[in-house]
Amino acid sequence: MCTVFVQHTSASLIIQENADPSAKHDLENWLNRLVPEHEPLYTHTLEGADDMPAHIKSAITATSIAIPIINNKMALGTWQGLYLWEHRRLRGQRTIIIHAA
Fold first, then answer.
1. By CB neighbour count within 10 A (0-12 exposed, 13-18 middle, 19+ buried), where does 91 fall?
2. What is the pLDDT of residues 10-32, one digit of tens each?
């Protein structure tokens, strides 16, 4: 089993379509509509309008994913890819932990 973990609170991991980039684009648009910036309910705004939405997006997606390993390879489906989903506009350096057992 391979476990992948992102050590941040404003990014997440997803397994998603890897053949057609429009799928990632559509997911991004959908999530931005679901969790908009400049929401009057947010009080955590010191780091910018995208900060609290990024935390919410991370909370409703995943910060770790477990993937089976078969024949020394991650057993992803034909159309699946593993992605780091950055939820901030100013993309910083991210740390990913990978553990295979």
1. exposed
2. 999 999 999 999 999 999 999 99
Q: Which of 22, 8, 86, 14 is nearest to 50 (CA)?
A: 86
Range of the domain at 59: 2-75+82-100
Q: Please report, for the domain that includes residue 68, its CATH number.
A: 2.60.120.460
Q: Structure pTM?
A: 0.90
Count structural domains, the chain: 1
Cβ atoms within 10 A of the Cβ of 65, count? 17
Task: Please tell me the distance from the alpha carbon of residue 42 to that of residue 27, in angstroms, as a whole number.
Answer: 23
